[in-house]
What does this fold into?
Amino acid sequence: MHFSKYVDEKTKREYFQHSHLIYLSTFFAFFAIIPLFFLSRSILITAISFVTMGITAIAVLINRRGYYGLASFIFILTITIQAAAEVIVFGLEIGFQYYFFNMAVLIVFAKWNKIQKLIAASIEALVFIGVLLVTLRFSPLVILSNPLALVFHIINIVLNILGVARTSYHFLSIARSAEKDLLTYAQTDFLTSLPNRAAYHRFVYEMKERFKSKPFPPVVIMMIDIDNFKTINDEYGHAAGDEVLIVLGKTFKERLQGGDFLARYGGEEFVLIHLAQNEEEARRFAESLRQKIEGRTFHFEEKDIRLSISVGALYRSPTNKKDCEEALEEADILLYQAKKEGRNRVAFKSI
It folds into this structure.
């Protein structure tokens, strides 16, 4: 088997943190279990446990150096041998066979390829079957008294349930985190890092659900377009156009208030939803946004670029039943009106 070293943070989070906890907890568990083996008068298992404890410490060190696959191989192999010896010595009544199932779970989540996992799982099953046949053919080498046998069985049940539960929880958390990251990527514009069009529609849906049973707040929905953006791209290059989008996105974001929402809707268009106090405040907000852009000069590679925006702003009063999707369509019509009237202006309407 070939084992590579992994140092990237994603792999470290996925494999190192969980396996490190498993190996360390196993190492320290031997401090409690070895005295019980000694009390059972099984010198063989006591000696094997000391060896397993030492090898587990080695697995911890190898794991810390980033060789997660190799550490898993050493640990799983050692615990499998230990479990096989324990079942042969003490029989099936004590519960050491449960560790085979735990090792099977670790094999599934080990940093190995599919073939390696298949081979390891097959060997684990064959060893388990072989040990089972031995116990059916021969009597246990050590017969434990009921109190000690019960203590061992309880310990084995608890340790194996905790092991399987911890592994399942860890990788379920990773899956949920990955799902959350994918959703974030799918709803984030890669250039401006603002929410994108998909995120806008999700926001509108969530807003609709939130105010399903209570009055909808007054809002102004603004469709914003950068004036003469194609000219900027043609004269200064697309790199300049990208920087303009990034800078304006940050400028718009600075104007947001609690509950407001901003997204890059597509191309040079942005959509902004502002929770307004009233119609007059909504009008002032839209106009102040236009003036903010008009009053600044964008610098790119020692060149000054004058910017302006056109805004279609639709104020929706609490009594109006039109949803945000329909309101955005009207805001888009207002934007077209603002551009038709000469750009660098706000076309405002109240419904």
